[in-house]
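Dear colleague,

As promised, here are the two records you asked about, laid out in our usual form so they can be pasted straight into your sheet.

NAME FIELD: protein one
SEQUENCE, THEN STRUCTURE:
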Amino acid sequence: MLLSHDLEEPVLYDPARMTGLNCNHLAIVTGFTDCDMISQHFIQLHDERGKADGFSKEIKIDIILGMYKGAGITLRKHRNIMQTLNRINAIDKHMSIKCRYIYKNAEVHTKLYTWLKDEKPIAAYAGSANYSVNAFRIRREILTDCDPAESFAYYNSLLPDTIDCFDENVPSLLKLTNTSIPNDEISELNYENLTYEDLIKRPPIDILEVSWLGKDGSVGATSGPNWGIRPREGYIDKNGMYVKYNRDRNQAYIPYNKWQRKEGFFPDRKNPSDKNCPLFKAVTKDDGIFYMRMAQQGNKGIHTAESNAILGKWLRKKLRLEDGALVTLDDFKRYGRTSVKFLKYADDVFIMDF
């Protein structure tokens, strides 16, 4: 089977669907990758994991990144990859993503995707498409199915030449530098090329202040910044069984109520039947980039897409509160601000300033 367009669904998602092959492990060999691809792939798998028509309940992704010279892996890219993986792997114990770099012998320019079910190779694809947004969504690339067992054997043959991205010796072994080298795998507005310092110099398309508070000026006790906090540890269900709440106390969303909305400011569903609103990138001054979207019934909240606990941790860090602490109006008054400023740029990129 030769795939020459719309590669994303058949290669990155369909093999993991429970209505399909129900695979739960993807082993990737790629010359280049980018944090946009890693994050967006995880978010979609996470959104539909465990659903009847969704993906396997347990999913892991292992990446071998083969091109380490030149524009392959700079120190900045290495740090971005670690930050992305740390953020993702803290979200869901049923999902994990790991990345290893080729660091000795010849570089690897291979593009190979092997899906396994309980460590048995089930499906594999090889061709020209790197594990990147450009390859899967912008360029004309080609992938064809190949022998799963041989593909996984090839993946394993590379492991002795790799090093885990979190190994403290990576910067010295790969001689990573901060030198900016043009890389046509990475677009200008990709996660890796966006910085607050560069973006703030540009004139925004539009600006909107969104309050953390309700219309009455109060902080929701179990909503908004305190979405993850519940007054009790659990509840009695309809069958009389005690059910413990399973929420991270950091979970939070920014209220986006009708009284403060600006039509079309944030990306909304293209079709009413879409399960989720589109993602947008929120660049912060001090904590990198978040993937966000409008959520909840009537789009009344804005949250971080991987997990709304990411937003809550960021807020509590800014307010100098402990993880999971109740956020109060006094906390906002002490900080000196009660609203988030969003500066809008092209291609669903924003600065989130608080």
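NAME FIELD: protein two
SEQUENCE, THEN STRUCTURE:
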Amino acid sequence: MVNIAVVYYSSTGNVHKLAEAAATAAGKAGAEVRLLRIPRLSAETVVPGTEDAVAAHGNTDGEIPEVRLDDLLWADGILIGTPVRFGLPAAPVGAFIDSTAPVSIPGKLANKVVSAFTSGSAPHGGHETTLLAVHNAVCHWGSLIVANGSTGEVLFRPENGNPYGSSSVTRNRPGNVHEDNLAAVEFQARRVTEVAGIVVRGLAAAR
């Protein structure tokens, strides 16, 4: 059994929906799973037009535990979910990544298997660059990036196709995650679980 942490920030609930699908899929694949949220910042910018959805979602995900650095140390594989913000991860995700310095700089995240997924309002609105920005941090961690690539039938469905990680075009509407996107992130979670298992067994054999 491998340990998988699904760590996400969601403003209106779309990334939350992807994260839940990923966590469920990893569990079905045999992993022990922790679904964990990145907390909001005290002074956070809200995308115009989504104020009501942000407020509503803030009242529904409070039962999800907040991520801690110990969760990253526990995990063999980590999936990180973020909304798109000007082609970058949302500010709370950036703050979370900054907070990992006490464990990442000493090399304690080395050889973790990491993947990322996202949701944004428009096609070609920065999905790929957001995922690649997360990958930049993963390189600093010394972790192993597992991208979707073109490795499964589900990734060729009309609403999918992003090789860097699963992504959803939601038009700023809460709950507007296409079933193809959910299937893609489920595939991604199974892939991370599989690769994490290979890495864990390989490291154990090398000791």
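A couple of things worth noting about protein two: Strands lie at 3-8, 32-37, 77-85, 88-89, 113-120, 144-145, 167-169. The longest helix spans residues 179-206.

Best,
R.
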